[in-house]
């Protein structure tokens, strides 16, 4: 049964995913709320429904292909369609590589941030191909362009999301399926609580450049209306990305001198 458009949001229990789900819920979308913390998803469902929207909480672990398939199956059984998949679930562990736990910090980060995006996309594609429409919106990061020390694994996953998205766009465009990617800088969410970063230098995203989850949610809504290959935000940071990618030698030198050496006490 066709009806109001459906967006499936992974990582809807906090931060950017929660703000995006709330925004789309207020704009007439039926919103599927996916994450592990079901209590939070149910609270958000109540909030969206109290405002006249429709939401479906689905307890999901995107590090499991079976859980992802169950999420897609439940969505289709309930709403009958998926118009947008917002692959947003993710976390960062910013430590020196040699200090990372092989499972919790490395394997799990790749599993959630990259493999989860690929598996969720694969799971919705047969439905989107059959309908000859659909939109995959992936959550990148500026770490998909500029990789900084202590972000080795995180940057690897986000470079991966970028490469995956570009190849995918060229694969599924023939079916009328769109692929957009949002590349934010620092966003004020619970993300920072998971990074376990301890900085001697105190270097972090300047307050003036820090985004709110609502700003990123607005960018996702804008992409839903008008698909975008790469939405780098805030826009001013495109200059820094251009500089860092155009002059990689200078970038290596600056990062080693002003970050790695003082942080390692060398
Ligand atoms: N905050 C930033 O500075 C920033 C900048 C650029 C990009 N990003 C990206 O934005 C996305 C959202 O992050 P956020 O800043 O909103 O952080 P957040 O508030 O910590 O939200 C992360 C979300 O991911 C979900 N998640 C984590 N592991 C999961 C798993 N195994 N299965 C299902 N869901 C899982 C969490 O839900 P549960 O714990 O309930 O499962 C939570 O809803 C991430 O992809 C992140 O890399 C963040």
Number of strands: 7
The radius of gyration is 19 Å
Number of domains: 1
| CATH class call | Alpha Beta
Terminal CA distance: 64 Å
Main sheet strand line-up: 3-2-1-4-5-6-7
> Please, what is the average pLDDT?
96
Low-confidence stretches: none
**Name given to the CATH architecture:** 3-Layer(aba) Sandwich
The hetero compounds bound to this protein are:
NADP nicotinamide-adenine-dinucleotide phosphate
Count up the helices: 9
Encode the helix/strand succession as letters.
EHEHEHEHEHEHHEHH
- β-strand amount: 5-15%
Q: What structural category characterises the helix and strand content?
A: alpha/beta
Instruction: Report the principal-axis shape.
Output: globular
Major pleated sheet:
7 strands, parallel
CATH domain fold name: Rossmann fold
Helix percent band:
40-55%
Protein described:
This protein has 266 residues and is an alpha/beta fold. It has one domain: NAD(P)-binding Rossmann-like Domain (Rossmann fold). It is built from nine helices and seven strands, in the order βαβαβαβαβαβααβαα. It has a seven-stranded parallel sheet with strand order 3-2-1-4-5-6-7, with helices on both faces. The termini are far apart. The mean pLDDT is 96. The chain binds NADP nicotinamide-adenine-dinucleotide phosphate.
